[in-house]
Amino acid sequence: MKPKLIIGIIAIVGFTSLLMYNFGESISTYTTFEGAENQSSAHIPGTWDEEKGAEFSLETKRFTFYMKDEDGVSKKVVYPKPKPNNFEDADQLVVIGEMRGDIFYANEMLMKCPSKYNDNDPGQFTKASDS
Amino acid sequence: MLGILGKVLISASFSASLVAMVFYFISANRDEEKTLKIGNWLFAAKAVFLVAASGILMYLIFQHQFQYYYVFNYTSLDLTPRYLFSAFYGGQEGSFMLWILISALLGFGLMKWTRSPYKAPVLFFLTLTQVFLLSMLLGWDIFGLKLGASPFRTIAEEMPNAPFLQTNPDFVPADGSGLNDLLKSPWMMIHPPILFVGFAMMTIPYCFAMAALWKQKYNEWIGPALPWTLSANVALLTAIFLGGYWAYVTLSFGGYWAWDPVENASLVPWLIGTAGIHTMIIQRKSAIAQKSSILFAILAYVAVVYETFLTRSGILGSSSVHSFVDLGLYNQLLAFMLVVTLVGLGLFFWRYRELPSPDKEAKILSREFMTVTGAMLLLILGSVIILGTSSPILGKLFVENPTPPEISFYNNWSMPIVMIMAVFTVLGQYLFWKKYDAESLASALINPLLVTSAVTIFSIIMGDVRNLYYMVYLFCGYFAIVGNAWVMVRLALQKPKLIGGSLTHIGFGMLLVGILASSAYNEALVDQKTANYNAAVERGEVTDEQGFKVTQKEEMLVLNLDEPVLVDNRYTVTYEGYELDNRVRRGQQNYKIKFEPVDGGKPFYMIPEVYPMLTSSSQENIQWSVDPDVRTGLLSDIYLYVGGSSYVQEQNDRIAENSMMQNVAARDTVDEEPKVQTLTFNPGQTIDVGKFKIRFVNYAKTDSTGLPPNTTIGVRAEVELIHPASNRIITVDPLFAVYSQNGQSYIYSPPAMVSEFDLEFQFTQINPQENSIELTVTGLEEEYEPEWVLIVADEKPFISVVWAGTFILMAGFSISILRHWNRERKKNNES
Fold it and tell me: What is the pLDDT of residues B26-84, one digit of tens each?
């Protein structure tokens, strides 16, 4: 084997392992409020807890609502942006952020909105900041 | 009826392609002219059938035949002709049709311009891809095995279980559900067609590479394939640019790029195609890079098909903002991808030993080494992006139910790669035109390096760049611009036709600098108080009521009507009201936001829009969508959208109230007491209060009648009470007087009555400093709420540089197309 070839192989293997390692670090799994403890960027799917309402406060400039995660646990979510336009319509939400005490601080929010006419249509997620 | 004809035509088109493929195969195998001709006729027949089917679909759309699901789902009666036209490719089925139509058109070009022995095999592979694409449109049901989703299926076929169809199977909806409001944009007219031109063209290098492997002629294919690949590149780049610009100026994505899988789907083929262009160009100059040219040509198209698979199979459903809906084509798309990949790579490795290798290793300081390395870096960048985009599949290696990677994954990997690329573009360009050794190259680069350093230092100081990594990045970007410009100027003086490459690399460098400036130095425009708050958040000094550190900054601004706010110490921003505009979209509000530069520059208006999304709103719930306004400048853009307003809130409250009233007669508490409100006016100002408008005209002269003795100040206000319903204006002049009695000052403000409406006006206060007065009004039913608007405004520096870089890239590629195409044409004329 030529030394150049060996160096090349080592470089490729090194690069690939580093890339895959970093890729593995930068993805996470969808979780629940309970599982989000000590995670700085947790993705939690859930539904809006309609009975407890939702409000954008002009004072604090924050949108707050309660979300039920997949375990049925309802927690307060604070989102530092205006209320997304299709919020009420979303049949599933994904909040991305951090749990602090009893409140979830979402930096990003995705919404899955149903299609009105077609039950086969699973709908699509939209980024809250995009709508 | 027409629908059945449409289905038949698509099936005929599919069958014709299938048979054409067989004839092309025979022709390619035996180098036979006769079978090639038959193949061409079948190819043409396929195209005719497909054009006819597209014509029918277009006709159905324009005739509002809502019994067809595609027409129902993507159009409605109120669409203007141009959006009806773009609804043709608004859905997945139609966009496949458009793709095949363009691909068929390119097929005729290939018939005309391709020389043997490549002609038959190239057309064979092009037809192969079309067979797969056409199969997506078949809508055949073979013993329960569904093949394709027909654009001509009816509502009854699509939703057999829908209740309204079970009661009446012949039900035809009166109106369709309409094109998504976000797609009602002029960009929708041009972005998708150009994207599919790019996808279809990217097929051609693949076909040529496969033909080269098949016919074992590994060098000559570069000639005809290079202009096609360059054109595919320009088309894709244009599509990427249009998509980015669309996202930025009308979709309020907040920027031109978000590493969304659908965006990546067009970027990755572009990167790999560009890698292929590099190796093809170097292969023309010396017998190196044959293997990689073929490999890149295959991979570029594999990337197109793989990204098509990702975005259309429903796999990305939960991670992408705008991937397509799953049509049940998963298996077909998977088969398409596997065939393209396995046939491509299979043939490549089959022939691998035969493929010519260079006689000797290239020196590091040679154009061969630099160009091939550049191509490899492009491939690596493409692979990193594919990896990130594939998170729903590859992420399963690490976790169950994987989320998409964080944006930083893309940024952290692409930054160093493009930095190395930037340096290599310069070295490569120098070595491309002249031989250098290390010493002579270093001395040739001294001047460009000096200029680059000067420009970098200047930018660092002007832009207050503190991040060391950014400084190095900027240096690399500027080096690409300066170094390549150096080469270009020298070339332009001698052979101006050859500047394509160096011009392209200048564009690349500008793109790098522009991307950093506009994304890393993007700044929210806020008032001083918010800015102080954000600074405190950054220092970690703000805690919330629970005692946790606040990390989220406040990046929006509430503007009350006619109350100027100083923003960023540079602009006085005033909200001057909204106007309802029904011309484009019903219920659209255009907000007038005035910006006055503090330094005395010319004032300007930003007019962001808010409109109800008609396709997804209902009686009980309005969904609002926004259209941002972007003010483009040479140095920076201002990007602004409305996050909420008193008008929107009123509309929502009204609807909420209406639906409450339907549920319960829930108005048990009626306020019997007349309400008292205090309103502040500037001279000339009008305030809306429910069914009245109140206008403070000005101060009025006061005569001594009605004044208490010892009055020190006595002023009357001329106030107009406007009642638009009855078209009446009533003028009152309430008095404000200060008098002294027993050494004490007293205010005297007797109420002025308006008996028709049972109202009382009292002039209760003067604020000389603000030049305003206060009126207390008793008896108004509705409470006055100030009109406000919530805006999110960003300043994005040097977006113009990003666009300029893109345009220069396009121009550079176009110059290269002309050069390589001209040479090809000469060869065609000779033979």
Answer: 999 998 899 999 999 999 999 999 999 999 999 999 999 998 999 998 888 888 888 89
d(C-alpha B276, C-alpha B379), whole Å = 9
The residue count for chain B: 831
Task: Kindly write down the DSSP assignment for every residue of chain A, as one continuous string.
Answer: --HHHHHHHHHHHHHHHHHHHHHHHH--BB--TTTTTT-SSEEEEEEE-GGG-EEEETTTTEEEEEEEETTS-EEEEEESSPPPTTTTT-SEEEEEEEEETTEEEEEEEEEEE--SS-TT---EEEEGGG-
- Tokens 């050069």 belong to which residue? B819
- Taking Cα atoms as reference points, which of B419, B345, B411, B422 lies closest to residue B384? B411
Q: How far apart (Å, rounded) are the C-alpha atoms in residues B297 and B276?
A: 6
Number of neighbours of residue B610 by Cβ within 10 angstroms: 24
How far away is chain A from the Cα of B406, in angstroms, using its nearest Cα? 6
Q: In what order do the strands lie in the sheet with B759-767?
A: B676-681, B772-778, B759-767, B752-754
Check if the beta carbon of residue B318 is closer than 8 Å to that of residue B400.
Answer: no
The answer, for A51 touching chain B at a CB cutoff of 8 Å, is no
User: Letter for the amino acid at B85?
Assistant: F
Q: What residues 131-190 of chain B have any CB closer than 8 A to a CB of chain A?
A: 158-159, 161-162, 177
Gap between the Cα atoms of B758 and B777, Å rounded: 11
The verdict on a CB contact (< 8 Å) between B398 and A24 is yes
Q: How far apart are the first and last CA of chain A?
A: 58
Quick check: A28 and B413 CB within 8 A?
no
Structure tokens at B283: 């292969």
Residues in contact with B48: Cβ distance below 8 Å, sequence separation at least 6, in sequence order: none
3-state secondary structure of B580: strand
The closest alpha carbon to B129, from B240, B280, B26, B24, belongs to B24
Is 0.95 surpassed by the pTM of this model?
Answer: no
Tokens representing B710 are 């010892």
Token pair 């309402």 is found at: A53
